[in-house]
Structure formats: C-alpha cells, structure tokens
Description:
Layout: H1 7-15, H2 24-36, H3 43-61, H4 73-97
Amino acid sequence: MIESLSTQSLRAAFKFPFENKDWFVPFLIGTALIISGMFIPVIPLLLVYGYFAQVMRIAIKGETMVLPPWSNWGQLLKDGLRSLAVGAIYLGPGIIVT
Length: 98
C-alpha cells in the first residue's frame, strides 16, 4: 500500500540527516564537492549524484535512514554516471523539442 504524504513523514525526511551524531562530516564533504563543482565541471557533481543514489537505495530498502559514509568513490562515480544517463534519457526529448 502506498504511504500517504503527511507532515510527519516530511518532518522525518528532512530531519534524518541530522539525527546521527556524526552528521557533520558527510555534510561537509558533500558541501565541499558541490562548491568545487562550480569550478571543476563534472566529476564532483557525479560523486554527489552517486551519493544521492546511495541514500535513495537505503530509503527504498526501508532501512534505517542514516547518512552513509563517503567511501568507495569508484562506486559513487559509477552510480553518478548512471544517474546522469537516466536523467539525460528522460529529459532528452523535452530538451530536443524545446
């Protein structure tokens, strides 16, 4: 059954990154990568997309929501490339039409 969206579920979704006592290090690494993505074109943002994919996998599996560590950079890069490819496939027709 599909869970309905409520303020309680939204509150839990926005609060989970800060519930772990070691939330600052993953947050700082992600922030640094996003800022470096302004100067270095693609690689840092692919790593961030890969990290987002990792967090989404945890949510889909129904596991306890925690920020995973920034490890296995090769896997993060591969997941980021896959996310970019899927986004390009979905957005491509709209971009072409525009």
